[in-house]
Design a protein that fits this description.
Layout lengths: L14 E2 L2 E2 L5 E5 L6 E6 L3 H20 L2 H17 L1 H12 L3 H21 L6 E3 L7 E8 L2 E5 L7 H13 L2 E5 L5 H13 L7 E3 L5 H10 L3 E7 L2 H13 L3 E5 L4 E5 L5 H13 L9 E7 H16 L19 H16 L3 E4 L14 E4 L6 H4 L6 E7 L2 H9 L3 E2 L1 E5 L3 H10 L4 E4 L14 E2 L2 E2 L12 E8 L3
Parallel strand pairs: 7-8, 7-10, 8-9, 10-11, 12-13, 12-18, 13-16, 15-16, 18-19
Antiparallel strand pairs: 1-2, 3-4, 5-6, 6-22, 11-21, 14-15, 17-20
The structure holds adenosine-5'-diphosphate (ADP).
Adenosine-5'-diphosphate binds next to helix 7 and helix 8.
Length: 483
């Protein structure tokens, strides 16, 4: 077993009602860089998921009744503890997920920023008064927490995807149960340890770790005491979970797949566009739902852009995320590597050109070389599916209208990016792109102050910003009569 120096934060079982759980069976957590065993974690299933929901339900009334300032104080403490342990949490995250340590530190700070943001927002959960239609009435609108929130999160941001859901839920006065991806349970459990240290009461924040996602998911989407379900993951699984939630008419937030276009116009600053693309495409080895997936470059600058990109990509350093200078870590597992290989092969056999990379890297079996493909077309699978690997697939277009049509030609609508210095074009594109988030001359768009979320089959609901509390509260209208 690989020695883990951040072992003070290692927990090896679910956290339910303020207590660490044991079990007869366990599952393995491995380092995707080396396939070394990191930990054996006690396996939870449907029964434990139910216990967690009941604990959250039991804790709800007390937590919701706390003054907002008290919830905010505990959340601020949680935020501070996360930041105090940023280095250890980042190391743990890199060990189980693979991303370079600098990115892991960034993720811890990013996740913590949601806890801080929503601690502040908790105090501004304002209602409304509305002029009544008659003199003897008053209309008052209050926002109340929905109740128990259940969530399922993916492995690509093992800390932040939990932090940004839990922070909004707890700030609103909801209690929370999360099932993290089985590949990355340790970051989730470390967050629970710090929530406990911060004094967040038992039952308010629960983590259920196990390998039978379907069984746990059944409980989290169908249990009568769950009021709202929040999911980040693939569109296919999300659709299934929406159906399960429909039976109980549960509130749902879905942050699903994307197929982000990254458009470079002939009036763009090409060097800035290359830098933006590096950040958007190669972060987390291409394994984010907002990664540039279809790079659309105007024909007149396509060669110049590809040349500049190739120079920049050649300099990316592939290697174990714990090595200080590594920029591209491993993919999460062998299946992820196989998917990238398949998509690339299909593209090449359909006429794409390999400019750079294109192989499994010598750093290890799950490391893929940063790759650039040109002559890609919209009909290729690589332009239709999320690549989730470090492969930049470049298509060309002629006119602005072509670019808009190509960009919108997808069932997804999460993030889009474009580079242009023409102010008219900037506004036309901002209007025409059918995506929930648009990066304009910027490749990194996500932060706690802004609403993160998609349209079309990328889902619904928003995380972060002052809008982020809306999904966790119900409006209650009080009609005062007889005045
Ligand atoms: P990814 O490609 O990121 O693994 P998934 O949608 O498969 O996307 O996984 C996201 C999360 O959904 C993970 O926590 C996973 O365990 C969980 N999951 C996968 N299948 C199901 C299912 N049928 N029911 C509930 N949760 C699921």
């Amino acid at each position: 077993m690989q020695q883990i120096s951040c072992s003070a934060l290692i927990r090896q079982g679910s956290f339910i009602n303020g207590a660490w759980q044991h079990a007869e069976t366990s599952f393995k957590v491995v380092n995707p860089a080396s396939q070394q065993l990191l930990a054996q974690v006690a396996t939870a299933g449907a029964a434990e998921a139910e216990q967690a929901v009941l604990a959250a339900d039991h804790a709800f009334a007390g937590w919701a009744a706390q003054p907002a300032a008290k919830r905010a104080e505990l959340m601020q403490r949680w935020y501070q503890l996360v930041m105090q342990h940023q280095d250890d949490l980042a190391r743990l995250l890199t060990l189980e997920q693979g991303k370079p340590l600098a990115e892991a530190k960034g993720e811890i700070a990013y996740g913590a920023s949601y806890i801080q943001w929503f601690a502040e927002e908790a105090k501004r959960l304002y209602g409304d008064t509305i002029p009544a239609p008659s003199a003897d009435k008053r209309i008052i609108v209050q926002r109340q927490p929905v109740g128990v929130v259940a969530a399922i999160t993916p492995w690509n941001f093992p800390n932040a995807m939990i932090a940004r859901k839990a922070a909004a839920a707890l700030a609103a006065g909801c209690t929370f149960v999360v099932k993290p991806a089985h590949q990355t349970p340790l970051s989730a459990l470390a967050l629970a340890e710090l929530a406990d240290q911060a004094g967040i009461p038992a039952g308010v924040f629960n983590v259920v770790v196990g390998t039978d996602a379907k069984a746990i998911g059944e409980v989290l989407t169908r249990h009568a005491r769950v009021a709202k379900f929040s999911f980040t993951g693939s569109t296919a699984v999300g659709k299934q979970l929406i159906k399960q939630c429909a039976d109980g008419v549960k509130r749902v937030t879905m942050e699903l797949g994307g197929n982000a276009p990254f458009i470079v116009f002939d009036d763009a600053d090409l060097d800035a566009a290359v830098q933006g693309l590096l950040a958007s495409k190669f972060r987390n080895a291409g394994q984010t739902c907002v990664c540039a997936n279809r790079i659309l470059v105007q024909r007149s600058v396509a060669q110049a852009f590809a040349d500049k990109l190739a120079i920049a990509v050649t300099q990316l350093k592939v290697g174990d995320g714990l090595a200080g200078d590594s920029q591209i870590g491993p993919l999460i597992d062998a299946n992820a590597v196989e998917k990238v290989v398949q998509l690339q092969q299909q593209a090449l056999s359909a006429g794409a050109t390999l400019l750079l990379g294109g192989k499994i890297d010598q750093a290890g079996t799950q490391f893929y070389q940063p790759t650039v493909l040109t002559d890609v077309s919209a009909a290729m699978e690589i332009a239709k599916q999320e690549i989730f690997g470090p492969v930049a697939a470049i298509q060309t277009f002629d006119s602005e209208q072509d670019a808009i049509a190509l960009a919108n030609n997808t069932e997804y609508g999460l993030a889009a990016y474009f580079y242009s210095r023409d102010i008219g074009r900037v506004f036309r594109l901002a209007q025409a792109l059918q995506f929930g988030m648009v990066g304009i001359n910027d490749g990194i768009i996500s932060n706690a102050a802004a609403p993160f979320g998609g349209v079309k089959q990328s889902g619904y609901g928003r995380e972060g910003s002052h809008y982020g509390l809306d999904d966790y509260t119900d409006l209650k209208y009080l009609c005062l009569g007889g005045l």
